[in-house]
């Protein structure tokens, strides 16, 4: 009888300790227990996500084929080694990265319900999406500069925008996009995420991730 009472008391003590531990962990950072986010997909259209995935897949394949075709054509034809076509090749490369950063994960969410995405994978996807979007706008500015010089200074176009200058512009756009967005994942790593890790998109977007944090986000 005494043994039964001791056993029951020990069991209750262990149960209380486990309950307190679970309560403490539930209020702590999710990185220790659930290192992932949950991507909803397209909110409100859960029943028709399979139908949406089909045209999205077709568009992604068209983007791949179209951009690769343009890159291959410019690469194999030396007569196209001109500023307009070189900037177009940069734009195609950026579009390939952007499409490949979003479409595969979105299709996985819509088709096979792969809603879970790891913490580091989410940060990498977010970085590539925002960084290469910034690079895309930089290349468009460079293309506008090329057209301006071609119209206003046609006789000096080849001397102003020679291959060396084009290469430097490309490097500047690349470095600008990387440096501009590098603080995003670094600042996100200092945030604490508690219980709500559900993102209302089919991919990781910066402000959607920031809004999930339960710590101070003023710097972000």
Characterise the protein shown here.
The protein has helices at about 1-25, 50-75, 85-110, 120-150, 155-160, 165-180, 185-190, 205-210, and strands at about 35-40, 115-120, 200. It is mainly α and about 220 residues long. It has 2 domains: about 1-35; about 35-210, Rhodopsin 7-helix transmembrane proteins (Rhopdopsin 7-helix transmembrane proteins), CATH 1.20.1070.10. The chain has a 3-stranded mixed β-sheet with strand order 2-1-3. It is flat and about 65 Å long. Residues about 15-35 have low confidence and may be disordered.
Question: What is the rounded distance between the termini?
Answer: 62 Å
Please provide the ordered H/E string of secondary-structure elements: HEHHEHHHHEH
Radius of gyration, whole Å: 26 Å
Shape: flat
**Spatial order of the strands in the main sheet?**
2-1-3
What's the CATH architecture name of the largest domain?
Answer: Up-down Bundle
Q: CATH class of the largest domain, anyone?
A: Mainly Alpha
Number of helices: 8
Largest sheet: 3 strands, mixed
Residue-averaged pLDDT: 80
Name the features.
olfaction, Olfactory receptor, 3-stranded mixed sheet, mainly alpha, transmembrane helix, OR51/52/56-like, 220 residues, 69% helix, 8 helices, sensory transduction, flat, single chain, Rhopdopsin 7-helix transmembrane proteins
């Amino acid at each position: 009888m005494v043994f039964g009472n001791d056993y029951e008391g020990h069991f209750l003590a262990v149960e209380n300790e486990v309950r307190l531990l679970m309560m403490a962990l539930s209020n702590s950072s999710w990185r220790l227990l659930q290192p992932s986010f949950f991507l909803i997909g397209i909110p409100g259209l859960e029943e028709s996500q399979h139908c949406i995935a089909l045209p999205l897949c077709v568009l992604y394949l068209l983007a791949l084929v179209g951009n690769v075709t343009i890159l291959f054509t410019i690469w194999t034809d030396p007569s196209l080694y001109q500023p307009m076509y070189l900037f177009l090749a940069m734009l195609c490369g950026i579009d390939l990265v952007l499409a490949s950063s979003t479409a595969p994960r979105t299709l996985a969410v819509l088709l096979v319900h792969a809603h879970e995405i790891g913490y580091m994978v989410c940060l990498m996807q977010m970085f590539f999406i925002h960084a290469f979007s910034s690079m895309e706008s930089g290349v468009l500015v460079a293309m506008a500069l090329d057209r301006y010089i071609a119209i206003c200074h046609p006789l000096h176009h080849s001397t102003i925008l020679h291959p060396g200058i084009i290469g430097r512009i490309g490097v500047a756009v690349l470095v600008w996009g990387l440096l501009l967005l590098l603080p995003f994942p670094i600042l996100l790593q200092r945030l604490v995420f508690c219980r709500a890790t559900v993102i209302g998109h089919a991919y990781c977007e910066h402000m959607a991730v920031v809004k999930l944090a339960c710590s101070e986000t003023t710097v972000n």
